[in-house]
Amino acid sequence: MIPQIDLKRQHEALRSELMDAALRVIDSCRFILGPEGQALERELTAVCGARHGLGTGSGTDALLIALKAVGVKPGDEVITSAFSFVASGTTILMAGATPVFVDVDPGTFNVDPIGVERAITPRTRAIVPVHLYGQAAPMDTLCDLARARGLAVVADAAQANSNRLQTASTVRIPASLSALEVGSPTRARTWDLRINSPSLYQLSYRGFVREAAF
Q: How many CB atoms lie under 10 A from the CB of residue 94?
């Protein structure tokens, strides 16, 4: 039987580095919010060209915190791709908003900007484009549209982390546009938010603390 997921070859190439990192965490007993997590935040933020990075425990947490940070609330609508992992839509519901699904471009499987524009209503608060199969969504077009309509952008970058087009879009998004990116830097599913606006970073951090409280 061919396994659905087989990471042995990928892990083997990094085995000594992965084992060293795991032992550092075990020896430090800092399993949450420790120096290894902080180092990952700094390194990934630098790779992606963002100003701030915030590690989270799951992609669901990252998307939910991002949506709340840009002001999504009950009664709002959030536009996202109809072709994505379930969390792209369920986190919108978790924030109390209504997901509005838009079809994709058949050539890239990324959300169609024309469809996004048609789906905007007075209740629309944000757009959640999904970078898929290593290809970035058309962020320039979507961000221009969001800026013109006064909408926020939360990009789900789980499947295209550090994509060059995605990174370029991260750099060019001004602080005046509420924009965050959610990504998974490793197959081990460590998640983070990449943020350019200092105020959004503070809102995201406070949201992270609330979501992580136990």
A: 15
Q: What is the CATH number of the domain that holds 187?
A: 3.40.640.10
- Strand residues in the chain grouped as ranges (E): 52-56, 77-81, 98-102, 124-128, 152-156, 179-183, 191-195
Global pTM value: 0.75
Whole domain around residue 120: which residue ranges? Answer: 8-212
DSSP 95: T
pLDDT one-digit tens code per residue, 79-95 = 999 999 898 999 999 99
Residue 202 above 80 pLDDT?
A: no
On the question of pLDDT at 11 being above 80, the answer is yes
Q: Which residue has the higher pLDDT, 201 or 142?
A: 142
Query: 8 vs 12, 86, 109, CA distance in Å?
Result: 6, 26, 28
Q: Is residue 3 part of a domain?
A: no
* Number of other CB atoms surrounding residue 64 within 10 Å: 25
Number of domains composing the chain: 1
- Does residue 1 lie in a domain region? no
Q: Is residue 136, in this structure, part of any structural domain at all?
A: yes
Of 176, 110, 168, whose CA–CA distance to 148 is shortest?
A: 176
Pair 164, 131: CB distance under 8 Å? no
